[in-house]
Amino acid sequence: MNMDFTFYMPTRIIFGCGKLDQLAATPLLPGKKALIVVGASGAMRKHGYLDRVIKLLRQNGVEAAVYDKIQPNPVSEHVNEGAEVAKDQDCDFILGLGGGSTIDSAKSIAVMAVNPGVYWDYIARGSGGGQTPRNGALPIVAIPTTAGTGTEADPWTVITRTETNEKIGWGAPCTFPTLSIVDPELMLSVPPRQTAYTGMDAFFHSVESYLATINQPTSDHLALEAISLITKYLPIAVADGRNIEARTKLAWANTEAGICESLSCCISHHSMEHAVSAFYPDVAHGAGLTMLSVAYFSHLARRNPARFENLARAMGRSVDVLSESERPMAFIAGLRELIRSVGLDGEKLRDYGVQREDLPKFTANAFYAMGSLFDITPVELTQHDVIEIYEQAYA
Question: Whole-model pTM above 0.90?
């Protein structure tokens, strides 16, 4: 166990059913006018969440403007545009309402609302300018309506630069939310397929944080509990979205996974998925991770099996009856079963239009745009290895 680490977690999290109502009276709001960032799908209006948030803010003496163009795989041009709206409307904090893409975008908009240039000037990888946002960011409030990315509990934001097909994660101390309200009742409206995609995303955040070479005691504890909760409750929530116990357990597992992302980190599984959905934005992030996962984690388990037995135990697999060499692969068996139980075993890369000839460019992109995650992967992966993993996933 690595006992050399930094613990920094500045976000205040208000968690529980009905907690959204605290917006009306909490003294913790960091300003007097919010830019509420929501997705372009219209779901926040359809389910009444946007109107409810505006009303609660008004009761607390806070005005609001709205930016509503965010896509499932958010793009840098909308970050720049949203920041201009925040400046034009004199907003003094940004509120992300929705899934991970929306809250990620809110973080990035918060940076660009107070810094010059364009968003990509501040990205540290790929074609990014690598600048430091000297003015920090406007304060951020996060209200997730899905249990997927854990972005309410970490500083990370993933945005795509469409003209270069770069989907890159970035974050800084200033992009931690000041306040996050996690109300599982807001997640009752998520349809089964999206429930599965987002739940698998949180699952992989937890698994990768546990495997990362920068893991630490707190992230290990939270990651294993999140894996256990998701394994048990995600199939229930996919089958019955109104099951509030399952939604609450998944909401907490998701927040745990986000804390893990603050204390440890994802590994190159995410680099490889980002390349896929950078070129094929119709691939939901959780779907892409799931389609790559069996091939990817099988490769790691064979080459560095050390931590996989604990992952299998967290999934409730009986490992004691297995030989020592079989135990790491019990996690792969559990992973296959979880994918099947949430209805994603039929998903194939080719169904999204991916061609075998795309795999080398995915590989180059994964190292170029998100190469730093290969550095903390517990197995050294060459470009040949990565193409081989893509090939297995494609087949």
Answer: yes
